Structure formats: structure tokens, C-alpha cells
């Protein structure tokens, strides 16, 4: 089944990629962009069919590999 | 107001980053990962307070800068 892990920088962690996007948008004439933060989504297709077990597996993967817990937080969602 | 743009590779476009994550998960002992796709989320904080106008602005930004329409699709969501 499909599980989506969303990884975001924790509040307070500088986001240079977001800053660059903000500047680029301004340069393109988009006004009123006060903040930009960039995160990533990892869509996993798991052989596991039990929703609860799939969620647990994805959480373990996020803790181990997909997110850097020092600077990032993550959410796991089915589907 | 906050608007989130989610950018994904279109179906059929190769995702080497996803493949690398899949191999890494396998190497760490996570079995049963049949596919991994990686996308990104761009969280915009806009001065615009009208939901419809904010959504239109974010869509224009995605078309112009945030997504590469040749290989990527995007979704815009408020909040």
C-alpha cells in the first residue's frame, strides 16, 4: 500500500533554498511573498497491506533514513 | 495566508533519487519496498488574504518557477 512521508525543516532552522526561491519570485515580479519553506515528500509503495503495520514501517524508515531528526520533522500519512 | 505547492515527477519520468532511497532502505533491512518517488513541497506565506487570489498567485508561481512542467506536475492547496 502507498504511504507518504512528508519531511519539513523544523521551525527556526534556516532554509537557504526557500530564501533563494523567495528572492527569485520577487525578481520575477511576484510581490507579497513573505516567507518560503521547502520540504520533501517521499511516496513509498509497500508490499505490506495492513495500514497500521505500513504506517509503523514508514515511521521506522523516516527515523532511520528519510528524515534528519536534528533539523527536520516528519509526518506519515497513508495514501 | 499560507499556500502549499506540492510538486511531483510525472508518471513515467525516471526518479533516480527515489531509486537510491529504495536501495538504501533495502540495504538497511527494510523489505517489501516496491517503489519510491520523491517530490517536494513549497510552503508559501503570502501577504494576499483572499483565498482565491492566493491560490491563483501560487499557481502562477508554480507555472513560472516552482515546477518544471516538462517533467513535473503540481498541486496547490490552501493552508
> How widely separated are the two ends of chain A?
7 Å
Strand order of the largest sheet of chain A: 2-1-3
User: Do you know the CATH architecture of chain A?
Assistant: 2-Layer Sandwich
pLDDT < 50 stretches of chain A: none
User: How would you name the oligomeric state of the polypeptide chains in this document?
Assistant: homodimer
The share of residues in helices of chain A is 25-40%
Number of strand elements of chain A: 3
Order of helices and strands of chain A: EHEHE
Q: Which secondary-structure class do the elements of chain A indicate?
A: alpha+beta
Major sheet description of chain A:
3 strands, antiparallel
Mean pLDDT of chain A: 97
CA radius of gyration of chain A: 16 Å
Number of helices of chain A: 2
Q: Sum up the overall morphology of chain A in one term.
A: elongated
Number of domains of chain A: 1
CATH-defined superfamily of chain A: Phosphoribosylformylglycinamidine synthase subunit PurS
Strand content of chain A: 35-45%
CATH class of chain A: Alpha Beta
Largest interface, counted by CB within 8 Å of the partner chain's CB: A-B, 32 and 32 residues
By CATH, the topology of chain A is Mth169, Chain: A
Amino acid at each position: 500500500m502507498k504511504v507518504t512521508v512528508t519531511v519539513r525543516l523544523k521551525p527556526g532552522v534556516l532554509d537557504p533554498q526557500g530564501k533563494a526561491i523567495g528572492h527569485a519570485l520577487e525578481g520575477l515580479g511576484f510581490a507579497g511573498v513573505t516567507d518560503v519553506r521547502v520540504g520533501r515528500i517521499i511516496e513509498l509503495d509497500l508490499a505490506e497491506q495492513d495500514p497500521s503495520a505500513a504506517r509503523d514501517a514508514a515511521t521506522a524508515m523516516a527515523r532511520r533514513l528519510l528524515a534528519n531528526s536534528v533539523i527536520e520533522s516528519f509526518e506519515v500519512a497513508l495514501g
